[in-house]
Amino acid sequence: MCKSRRRDDSYSSTEWSEAFTLSASSLNKPTVTLQPSWTQIYSGETVTVRCEIQGGEGAQWTYEWRAAKLNTPPTSNEHRIIRATESDSGGYSCRGRRDNFFSEWSDIITLTVSSSKPRATLTAQSSILPAGGSVTLSCSVEGSAGWKFDWFRRDSVSSKAQLMRGNEANRVISVSQGGLYHCRGGRGDPVFYTEDSSDVTVTETFPSKPTVTLQPSWTQIYSGETVTVRCEIQGGEGAQWTYEWRAAKLNTPPTSNEYRIIRATESDSGGYSCRGRRDYFFSEWSDIITLTVSSSKPRATLTAHSSIIPAGGSVTLNCSVEGSAGWKFDWFRRDSVSSKAQLMRGNEANRGISVSKGGLYHCRGGRGDPVYYTEDSSDITVQQTVRNRIDVKLQHSWSQIFTGETITLRCEIQGGEGKVWKYEWTAPNTNSPPTSSEYRISTVSVSHSGDYRCRGSSDYLLTGWSDAFTLTVSSSKPRATLTAQSSVIPAGGSVTLSCSVEGSAGWKFDWFRRDSVSSKAQLMRGNEANRVISVSQGGLYHCRGGRGDPVYYTEDSSDVTVVETSQTEKPQASLVGSVTLNCSVNDSAGWRYYWFRRTSESSAAQRITNGTSSHTFSVSEGGIYYCRGGRGDPVCFTEDSVSVTIETNGFRCESHSFLVPFIIGLVFGSLLIVPVLLCCICCHTRIRGSCSLQTSINPLLHPKLPTKVTLRFTPLFSTVIFLSMNRSETLEALEVTFIRVTHILPISTSLTPQSELHPSLSLHLHHHQSLDSRGSSPITVWMFCHDGSLKLNCQRH
Question: How far is the C-alpha of 135 from the C-alpha of 203, rounded, in Å?
Fold first, then answer.
């Protein structure tokens, strides 16, 4: 201890200070520890703070403590805090004292006392317990250690928790049973418990997987339809399940097993799945079923296997709605476009029906409850075939049609009177045939040749196709042919002209005349139905044919010159004749005939015709003629006929076998023209059958003679006849009648036997022109051979 005094006053001083004891320090530094060793504790826990001096064992130490709350710190080496509070938080340090020795102060250890009671935290590896598996649970107390854990489980929220395991040092356990789980931590002595953890629900997976179904079962539906989505758990019957749904649009999904969509919209499209939950059992999620809602209303489609009902038959109709199912069908029929549709059958499950009546048909589909209908299908026209006969006819029944003509084909339906028919045509040369009963072709061409057919329809009745009408169009324009009865008009008389168009009919004729070659033709008569007219005026005549509407004209005919005879002059006659050759093949038919001519015996034969069907051939030119027949394909030819020589100064018929010339010449005078007769040559010997090649000449007779002269003769003698206007005599043996011809009338002759025992010949007279160029009298000589056949040899003198 100490006291003080003043320097200038040796006798004044203070009192003595309090005593201060100085002790020797210990060399060892103490350590403060906690028991349990948790620097973080909670209100209510008990902890012991201990001061330990290393190397001071066995000594009697007194301890000093530093702590904020220690008003009366203990002197022992332990400071026990029972039911710690927040005020016990702080730093703790200590030192030891023994006699006059002190240890150093220990390092401070900080104790933290939290006022809130801690809560255990329970986590689950998964909240779903797979079937036959387990789930790991972990319990922890955040920010502190030293805990042991108690584990609890409940079967339901309302049931009492049961301790599964207690005072478990391991913070992790595995569970294989569904339920509500929680845990708590505990430590210390007495044990301090945390708050219970929150419940963790572990759901046990139900072994059966649910299925989502649609009622009706259509994954494709349309706006406005109603559909129910249903969750079904097989094997879960009788249990009280709560359902969960997954769907894109379900903001508040239902908990029942059905989800009903009324008047579906496009937004209801998507995938739907569900699962069931019962207590702590969960099913798996079902597979997703996708629902598609189309915004457009569907249209039914009606098809027919044929649009035409055969007579007495039927046609099958099919109704469908593409891309969807579950429809039933309503069937409708109308008699016409303007009539109201009548329901034939309703709510038919079968999509196909058979109909046997024509009409307009349509259908629609319906499904669901309430029924949702499609748009009506398009109409299908079904025509019923009737048995009326139908024909194609040419308006003008001309067998031959020429390029450039206008024709009309007509479709005629027998028994179809009173109905309004629409017509259909098939033709070889048109893309758009008419729909009327008449098919008019203006300016017809060869390309129009072919088959034409038609059929008719009235409302929903249909005829069959007509038989084909074959139209043949000739490419060449026809030429009219004009012939004259005579080229000379007798004084005061007339001549008949005939106009024709070969191989065709229906013509009317226009007649033209010119005064000369250089003058213009004048129409005499037009559109004449008669093909023959009489003219009494000389000139150049031609004609043409016309038919149809508009009129189609032929080429003009060649000109025919008609000469008018003066009344003051007598005509001169000249013999200008023609010979008709006849070719025949005995006892057979079907031949075509080929004609040949040579100019002399040594010259080569030239074919002058090529297979004509006519067995006659008219010649006006001299030469050596023969013929042959041919038929078949390839052509089979006959042997050539015996040749005939025709001379231009007369006519001579020869059989190139045995000829016996017999010439009779008679000269008459007495103020008359003396005719010279040629002798007729007759065959005395064998003739090979009847003559294969015969000739006829056109003699000239007076017009006042009878038109038929009958000659009787004996086959053993030859008879020569001369005809005259003043007398006719028959001489026995060589019976000869002398004739003087003063007026000439053109005629042609033909002879026909009338009796076999006493043959006779009829001489038929026809007009023909034959005038002697010298003006002398023509002479006609007929000779009958011994065998009764007619031979002709005429010569002019």
Answer: 10
pTM (two decimals): 0.43
Q: Does the bond joining 433 to the residue before it have cis omega, within 30 degrees of 0?
A: no
Rounded CA-CA distance 616/708 in Å is: 24
CA atoms lying within 13 Å on the CB side of residue 608: 16
| Spatial CA neighbour of 642 closest among 631, 626, 630, 653 | 626
Rounded to an integer, what distance in angstroms lies between the CA atom of residue 303 and that of residue 313?
Answer: 18
The pLDDT, as a whole number, for residue 591 is 87
β-strand pairing of 109-114 with 40-42 = parallel
Long-range contact pairs involving 641-647 (C-beta distance under 8 Å, separation at least 24): 641/583, 641/692, 641/693, 642/688, 642/691, 642/692, 642/693, 643/598, 643/693, 644/581, 644/693, 644/695, 646/579, 646/619, 646/621, 646/622, 646/695, 647/622
Q: Which one has a higher pLDDT value, 136 or 70?
A: 136
Going by C-alpha positions, the residue among 766, 769, 762, 756 that lies closest to residue 711 is 762
Cβ partners under 8 Å of residue 619, min gap 6: 578, 579, 580, 581, 597, 625, 646
pLDDT top residue among 449 and 239: 449
For all residues of the chain together, what is the average pLDDT? 78
Length in residues, the chain: 797
Selection from 622, 618, 632, 621 nearest residue 585 by Cα: 632
The answer to whether residue 791 scores a pLDDT higher than 60 is no
Strand 473-474 versus strand 401-402 pairing type:
parallel
pLDDT at position 206: 81
Provide the token pair at 145. 């250690």
SS3 assignment for 441-455: ECCCCHHHCEEEEEE
Give the separation between CA 286 and CA 274, rounded to whole angstroms: 5
Closest listed residue to residue 120, CA positions, set 186, 213, 69, 172: 186
Read off the pLDDT of each residue in 440-465 and give the average, rounded to a whole number.
90
Burial of 367: CB neighbours in 10 Å, binned 0-12, 13-18, 19+: buried
Spatial distance between the Cα atoms of 654 and 177, rounded to a whole number of angstroms:
142
Assign 266 to helix, strand or coil.
helix
Q: Distance of alpha carbon 649 from its chain centroid, rounded? A: 79
pLDDT at residue 20 in the model: 64
Give the C-alpha separation, 385 to 312, whole Å: 8
Provide the phi-psi class of 344: left if phi over 0, else alpha when psi is between -120 and 50, else beta: alpha
Determine the pLDDT at residue 576.
53
Q: Cis omega (within 30 of 0) on the bond before 298?
A: no
CB proximity list for 779: less than 8 A, separation 6 or greater: 675, 676, 677, 678, 722, 794, 796, 797
Q: Per-residue confidence at 656, pLDDT binned at 50, 70, 90?
A: very low
Exposed, middle or buried: residue 428 (CB in 10 Å: 0-12, 13-18, 19+)?
Answer: exposed
Q: What is the pLDDT of residues 525-560, one digit of tens each?
A: 999 999 999 999 999 999 999 998 899 999 999 999
Q: Which residues contact 283 (CB under 8 A, 6 or more apart)?
A: 205, 206, 208, 209, 210, 233, 236, 275, 276, 277
pLDDT category at 495 given cuts 50, 70, 90 is very high
Q: For residue 394, give the nearest of 470, 457, 503 by alpha carbon.
A: 470
* Contact in structure between 681 and 783 (CB atoms under 8 Å): yes
Q: What are the φ/ψ torsions at residue 258 (nearest 5 degrees)? A: -125, 140
- Residue 516 in tokens: 């000369």
Backbone phi, psi, residue 49, to 5°: -100, 125
pLDDT band per the 50, 70, 90 thresholds, residue 648:
low
Q: For residue 131, what pLDDT is reported?
A: 81
